[in-house]
Amino acid sequence: MHSPSKAKLAITALAGVVLALVIVSRPLTAPLPATVRISDMTWVEVRSAIEHGYDRVLVPSGGIEQNGPHMILGKHDHIVSWTAGRIATELGRTLVAPVVSFVPEGEFSPPSGHMRFPGTIGVSEPVYAGVLEDIARSLKAGGFKTICFIADHGGSMKVQAEVAARLTREWSQEGIRVVDVDDYYAAAGDLQNKFLESQGERPAAIGQHAGIADTSELMAVHPTGVDLSRHPAFGLAETGVSGDPRRASVDRGKVLLDLKVQAAVRQIRAVKAGI
Questions:
Q1: pLDDT tens figures, 4-30
Q2: Assigned domain for 32 exists
Q3: Is residue 31 part of a domain?
Q4: Fewest CB atoms within 10 Å of the CB: 57, 96, 163, 274?
Q5: Inter-residue contact 118 to 60 (CB < 8 Å)
Q6: Contacts of 214 (CB under 8 A, 6+ apart)
Q7: How much is the pLDDT for 19?
């Protein structure tokens, strides 16, 4: 049996090199993905989406905090993940970054705010600001032109607004905007209270934390995260609850969530229109 000649080996090797060069030089392409969530996409799909005009991205912030004995600690994460997906879909040409779970929750020592309750995980305001800033810088480096911060937790609002304003000033000459979508929390919150009051609920029953609104929203998007049989009739000092979550319902949750989604969509569209 004869061994291959040196000429044949050389030709084979050359063919392999040429094939490799062709493969490497061929541009990577991908169809538009069937999801708006960056974490479920490849980098090639993200690049393709941006090239097709998907240059706006939402950065949702949730929180891991106590929500009374009847509701899981990850309430904010589940709610803002769901609403961000709805907002992106309604806006069109918009993607969604993963939820930022760790936000300001109070002082560590002595514990204050939600930090008084086991299971709450918070970060300081400077740390949260740094996380938001670096996420925005990452998204800018990837090609996004409009970066929208959306917080489901009231303690995140001040920092979110400051970071958005500072980065917008820094990047204004590049045509890049960082938006503090504060209507999602503030304007929608006012509308939610008016809706519940129109249904006969009083402010004391509506509450301010883990009451009717919060509980109804989570029941609508993640029902296994709520167990109203665990809620005793105690006040804020004992349970971490403000309001009466026993008056929550899935139907109310759907309406309340839609108020938040529509408030955010209106504000983001107004920013794009220069209003």
A1: 566 565 555 555 544 444 434 456 777
A2: no
A3: no
A4: 274
A5: no
A6: 67, 71, 75, 79, 245
A7: 42
Q: Which of 266, 254, 268, 73 is nearest to 153 (CA)?
A: 73
Question: How many structural domains compose the chain?
Answer: 1
Q: State pTM to two decimals.
A: 0.88
The CATH number of the domain holding residue 164 is 3.40.50.10310
Domain membership of residue 167 (yes or no) is yes
Sheet harboring 177-180: ordered strands across? 94-96, 56-61, 146-151, 177-180
Domain that holds residue 229: 38-273
Instruction: Give the distance, in angstroms, between the CA of residue 219 and the centroid of all CA atoms in the same chain.
Output: 19
Per-residue model confidence (pLDDT) at position 4: 55
Contact status, residue 62 vs residue 74, Cβ threshold 8 Å:
yes
Alpha-carbon distances, residue 27 vs 16, 23, 52 (angstroms): 19, 9, 16
Q: Is residue 220 part of a domain?
A: yes
**Across 89-103, average pLDDT:** 98
Residues in the chain, total: 275
Q: Is 100 helix (H, G, I), strand (E, B) or coil?
A: strand
Q: Burial of 220 by CB count in 10 Å (0-12 exposed, 13-18 middle, 19+ buried)?
A: buried
Partners of 211 in the β-ladder: none
